[in-house]
Specification:
Layout: H1 25-30, H2 33-41, E1 71-80, E2 88-90, E3 99-108, E4 114-119, H3 134-143, E5 152-155, H4 162-170, E6 174-178, E7 200-205, E8 208-214, E9 218-223
Parallel strand pairs: 1-5, 5-6
Antiparallel strand pairs: 1-3, 2-3, 3-4, 6-9, 7-8, 8-9
Length: 229
Amino acid sequence: MGVVKKPTIASYWNEGDNNWLASTPSFGGIMPRNRFKVIMRFLHCKDNSVAVPRGQPDHDPLHNIRSADPECFVDERMVGFKGRHHLVQYMANKKAHRWGVKLWILAEAGTGYTNQVRIYKGRNLGGPPPMEGLGHSVVLDLMEPHLDKGHHIICNNYFSSPSLCHALVDRKTFCTGVVAVRRKGMLSSFVGKRPPRGLTIVRRQGPLLAVLFSDRKVFTILSTMDSPR
């Protein structure tokens, strides 16, 4: 497109009424027009004309890809890479890529589209360790552009904690997630408890619900939504 200039995107896929001067069949041969438009819709290019103050770290790439859906989730992903680099991690539970660069991601729960990306650069890189734990600080960092808007975030037991739920409620953001029963701030009465299958035990602390549900396994869930249902 930098060589062949046409007035609209769609015109690159026009057959040109069999006019060989106007027809560009190579575009349609590489990719369908609608597929190209969908990809272009979700691409974001950073504005390099905005100067970053000296001494202030720049943001990671792929930042602020699109506005967040009201329901979103936080997770970790691996970009496969086996070269020599200080960012390379090994994660035995990742079947697709056990070696690679770890990313913290915020994605829409309904579509799975990624909204925010942070590269994991080491637990203590760039300052002292976070007081409330790494998972706590990761969630607040990824959600920073979307706080105070009534969003609902879903996370797994690496991130979930009572302190995170309370911190998000203070910023008008709901949270639901499976939590480790021995996480700091959790009920001691839940530890080692295995009620009959199908039984649910609910405890409330202000806006925070702690739910213990017994099925084939025992699940402990934290939520700041209205009802234990």
